[in-house]
Amino acid sequence: MKTLIALFLAGFASLALASGSSTVDPSSVEHYNYGSKLDIAKVISLSSIPDVCEVVPAQMIYEDSHGQRHTLEYQVMGDGCSNH
């Protein structure tokens, strides 16, 4: 099921708009937990995924259906794993 969540969040990457770099107040970051109810109307940006073979934190900035911006931190598998 966690794989489905990761795929769900990754799916939003294709809809993301580049917004340039911005600083985020660490106290305003929401942490995703399995079963969290998300209201994502528009993805603003996604952090880059490092080239490592381990689980790493990633962030997504999005707007909800009321136009409020949120920063969500979640766990993803790094891009450094391969099956050669």
From TrEMBL:
Record key words, sorted: Signal
Signal peptide region: 1-18
Keyword Signal carried by entry: yes
Record InterPro entries: DUF2790
Domain of life: Bacteria
Pfam families, alphabetized: DUF2790
Protein name (record): DUF2790 domain-containing protein
Originating organism: Pseudomonas versuta
